[in-house]
């Protein structure tokens, strides 16, 4: 039975990575597929652990070979999800959880229509701005670019299956877990048969 592909998305600074890491720690049955990027590592990030750090030439070669499930150029850097790694896990029956930006989520929906898109929504624009400024991972120019995209990113919520307000980490994680649980027990998915007959 094919696994489910869950996509966690939302505006920059909303806390996608924090929620994803917490969910993965609670749900060992979920797998995470590492993204590729051309941006330089931040802090203690390690190649092959946090991201696959590629040159622009390497990334463009993968695009030409249709090696990504989704990819985008965001804030002057490329980001993408290696396709074969995700499909291999799904085909082996594992669920996959990804965190991607708005453009990436739209491409995944086009390339893998059965994906389940979850939009992480900030408690307010002011709080989102505060998080971007205080996380200390970007220079002032990058922060201003990210802030200029907020309205457009928030408007994308209508393209998603679910929305989760991230005003409290524990509550946001509980809601994401509830979505995963609900999708697993949809009659049309057939997972209930495995629960009953195993």
* Rg, nearest Å: 17 Å
Distance between the termini: 13 Å
Number of helices: 9
What are the segments in which pLDDT stays under 50 over at least 5 consecutive residues? none
- How many structural domains does the protein architecture include? 1
Structural class comes to alpha/beta
Tally of strands:
9
Largest sheet: 5 strands, parallel
Instruction: Report the order of strands and helices.
Output: EHEEEHEEHEHEHHHEHH
Note the beta-strand portion: 15-25%
Structure description:
This protein is of the alpha/beta class and 198 residues long. Helix content is 44%, strand content 21%. It has a 5-stranded parallel sheet, with helices on both faces. A 4-stranded mixed sheet has the order 4-3-6-5. Strand 5 and strand 6 form a beta hairpin. The longest helix has 16 residues, at 169-184. It is globular and about 55 Å long. The mean pLDDT is 88.
């Amino acid at each position: 039975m094919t696994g489910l592909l869950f996509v966690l998305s939302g505006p920059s600074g909303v806390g996608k990575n924090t929620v994803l890491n917490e969910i993965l720690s609670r749900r060992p049955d979920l797998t995470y597929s590492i993204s590729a990027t051309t941006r330089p590592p931040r802090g203690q990030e390690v190649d092959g652990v946090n991201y696959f750090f590629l040159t622009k030439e390497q990334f463009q070669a993968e695009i030409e070979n249709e090696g990504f499930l989704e990819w985008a150029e965001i804030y002057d850097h490329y980001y993408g999800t290696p396709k074969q790694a995700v499909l291999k896990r799904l085909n082996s029956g594992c669920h996959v959880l990804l965190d991607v930006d708005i453009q990436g989520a739209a491409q995944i929906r086009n390339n893998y229509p059965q994906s389940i898109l979850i939009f992480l929504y900030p408690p307010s624009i002011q709080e989102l701005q505060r998080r971007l400024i205080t996380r200390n991972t970007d220079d002032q120019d990058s922060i201003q670019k990210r802030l200029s995209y907020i309205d457009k990113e928030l408007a994308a919520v209508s393209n998603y299956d679910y929305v989760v307000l991230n005003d409290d980490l524990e509550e946001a994680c509980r809601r994401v877990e509830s979505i995963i649980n609900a999708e697993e027990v949809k009659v049309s998915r057939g997972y209930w048969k495995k629960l009953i007959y195993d």
